[in-house]
Amino acid sequence: MTQALPHEEPGRSHGVHPAHRGSIFLEDGQIVSQETWPGEQFVLRIVAPKCAARALPGSFVHLTCDPDVPMRRPLSIQRANSKEGWIEILYKIVGPGLRALSRRRAGDAISVLGPIGQPFRPDPKRPRALLVGGGVGIPPMVFLSEWMIEQAGKPWKPLVLMGSEIPFPFKARPSTILVPGIPAGSIAAMPLLDGWSVPSRLASRAGFPGCYDGFVTQLSDEWLGSLDAAAKAEVEVFGCGPTPMLEALAKVAAKHGVPCQVSLEEFMACAVGGCAGCTVKVMTPDGPAMKRVCVDGPVFDAKAVFG
């Protein structure tokens, strides 16, 4: 059964902020599959038609990990198929809640609250999109790249760069797509993206074959540095990952004079704007303000967050 969250008084039930009532849904989903990858990483596919129909790149869900774990966990959406009614989540075990989630199996019921959050907003005037994901920040970049190539006329030309210090949650292979400006030895790619004809490259300091030897932000800097002024005028950067990575990415974007949107990672309790436990300081036209990552974000302009 699927239902929209009721129009209730603030603070009652799920405590959904009035601005988001009717757009976030509570849904009894069902697990389709759960893939296990090295580094205690998992790819979870869930039938959740209401969420799948409304999810956008940057959206996340608040999942009940297990009937014995009362607190939900916020997890980014990696893919969403509105026709087949499923969403896909990539997560890494951090704590008992996600460990309990990793024990769930195909056919199990799972409560899904979502989609939540403000999505990425790509500018069609800047079609050369640089998508940068670090660790569990990879999922929104996969979602965003798939969304871009599905748009009418295919105005965007995404390049996806991913970084990880543990094995990637997929079997990397040499890319079939040439990317000018990428160091010659950096050829490892995500097969899923290659199959979509979306170029991707991997970065790691762990010595994985074919990966760029360094941080993904350094690889981003090298690629941007290879572009002339006319090419940079068509670039927009999008990032998701740990806060230090995003801060470094914001500096790289500022160095090259290109706009940058970042999806922040933050601890959350309610995840629907009721508790204000995930606030961050953001610069607005009216001065600094505290914004909730869950519903005011998680996507923000990098300059507004990191200065």
Per-chain topology:
Layout: E1 2-4, E2 25-37, E3 41-47, H1 49-54, E4 60-63, E5 73-81, E6 86-92, H2 96-102, E7 109-116, E8 128-134, H3 138-150, E9 159-163, E10 173-174, E11 188-189, H4 191-195, E12 200-204, E13 212-213, H5 216-225, H6 229-232, E14 235-240, H7 243-256, E15 260-263, E16 279-284, E17 287-292, E18 299-301, H8 302-306
Parallel strand pairs: 8-9, 8-14, 9-12, 12-13, 14-15
Antiparallel strand pairs: 1-2, 2-3, 2-7, 3-6, 4-5, 4-7, 5-6, 10-11, 15-18, 16-17
What does this structure look like?
The protein has helices spanning 49-54, 96-102, 138-150, 191-195, 216-225, 229-232, 243-256, 302-306, and strands spanning 2-4, 25-37, 41-47, 60-63, 73-81, 86-92, 109-116, 128-134, 159-163, 173-174, 188-189, 200-204, 212-213, 235-240, 260-263, 279-284, 287-292, 299-301. By secondary structure, it is α/β, with parallel strands linked by helices. It has two domains: 2-116, Translation factors (Elongation Factor Tu (Ef-tu), domain 3, Beta Barrel); 128-263, 3-Layer(aba) Sandwich (Rossmann fold), CATH 3.40.50.80. The protein has a seven-stranded mixed sheet with strand order 13-12-9-8-14-15-18, with helices on both faces. β16 and β17 form a beta hairpin. The chain is globular, with a radius of gyration of 19 Å.
Short account of what is shown:
The chain has about 300 residues and is of the alpha/beta class.
